[in-house]
Amino acid sequence: MNTKILLAASLIAVFTIGLSAQSSVAFAQYMGNVGSEGQTGSYTLEEALEIQSRRVASAEANPAAGSGTPYISADGVVGAAIIAGAVFGGIAGAFFIRGRSGKYAAMGRG
Length: 110
Hints:
flat
């Protein structure tokens, strides 16, 4: 009985999360200021192409600047992985140390 309730609750949770995530998807790039009737501002396609070509030229002129993604800083990819590894590794280490002694530890193993 409990497995049926647990399965039903998990299916409801999955479908609810999927339903809410679908409404927050962005389908297009921002194309300028939007007015009250939905019209776009002065940011036209030609201006967007000009800005993008300037960005490409700037990236080619300064190859040492990188993509702008901070990989090694604390808010970057590697930094976040190191912090998460330290936190979860510390918790796992505490469980490992606590598991080697105590009421339910096997006799003769430590």
